[in-house]
Specification:
The chain is α/β, with parallel strands linked by helices and 206 residues long. It has a domain of 143 residues: P-loop containing nucleotide triphosphate hydrolases (Rossmann fold, 3-Layer(aba) Sandwich), CATH 3.40.50.300. 47% of the residues lie in helices and 15% in strands. It has 9 helices and 7 strands, in the order E-H-E-H-H-H-E-H-E-H-E-E-H-H-E-H. The chain has a 5-stranded parallel β-sheet with strand order 2-3-1-4-7, with helices on both faces. A hairpin with a 5-residue loop joins strand 5 and strand 6. Helix 2 packs across helix 3. The mean pLDDT is 95. The structure holds adenosine monophosphate. The site of adenosine monophosphate has 17 residues, from helix 2 and helix 3.
């Protein structure tokens, strides 16, 4: 199964990615997580992309495509892309690398996004928590790996607004793009993590 998760920042892509990858044994490829890993490892790519992530704007096309090509080829057939594609240009180029069986769009209103991201804490193992709706069991510590949780630099209110504006301008046209190709699953992403997951699995299993 070849899947892409589409949605605004904070629409729950990471939470659904984790559950879907466990259930269907998919390889989880998050371009954002790969960029953050490159930054924390201090690689040349990390140094190049750090200013973009800090500002909350998209990493240039060629750097993103190079990263993806290094991680995925036509041979892969069980994967979930989280945060890619984010532009029509990326979507078109992806057809030279591989293809999707399903693109799952998590539909969430901007007000819900802003409130979710303002209370989001994450772990370096990629699990996200929310102090309002998905609290860690112990104060600001990851339930799974016990490392301290932190706030992403790009979850500051002014950066959140910019990321949302970029999402509407650059990424939203992909909803129509994939709908026209008959592979879009449009899901109400404002529901609880478990409800969203069961909507998706009943479609994929049905
Ligand atoms: P995410 O973890 O998906 O929210 O991504 C964090 C940041 O990584 C984004 O704000 C962008 O700066 C960058 N990024 C992730 N995926 C892409 C992509 N497909 N194209 C361009 N930039 C990306």
């Amino acid at each position: 199964m070849r899947i892409s998760l589409l949605g605004a920042p904070g629409s729950g892509k990471g939470s659904q990615a984790k559950l879907l990858c466990e259930r269907y044994s998919l390889e989880w490829i998050s371009t954002g997580a790969l960029f953050r890993e490159a930054i924390s490892n201090g690689t040349a790519l990390g140094r190049q992309v750090a200013p973009y992530l800090e500002k909350g704007v998209l990493v240039p096309y060629s750097l993103t495509m190079d990263l993806l090509r290094g991680r995925l080829s036509a041979r892969h057939d069980d994967f979930l892309l989280d945060g890619f594609p984010r532009t029509t240009e990326q979507a078109k180029s992806f057809t030279d690398i591989n293809s999707f069986d399903h693109v799952i769009f998590l539909r969430v209103h901007d007000e819900v996004i802003v409130s979710r991201l303002s209370s989001r804490y994450v772990c370096s193992c990629s699990i996200a928590y929310n102090l309002l709706t998905k609290k860690p069991k112990q104060d600001l510590t990851c339930d799974v790996c016990k490392r301290p949780l932190y706030r992403r630099d790009d979850d500051k209110p002014e950066v959140i607004r910019l990321r949302l504006a970029i999402y509407h301008q650059e990424t939203e046209p992909l909803i129509k793009y994939y709908k026209d190709r008959g592979i879009l699953l449009d899901v109400d992403g404002s529901l609880s993590i478990n409800k969203v997951f069961s909507q998706i699995t009943s479609f994929l299993d049905g």
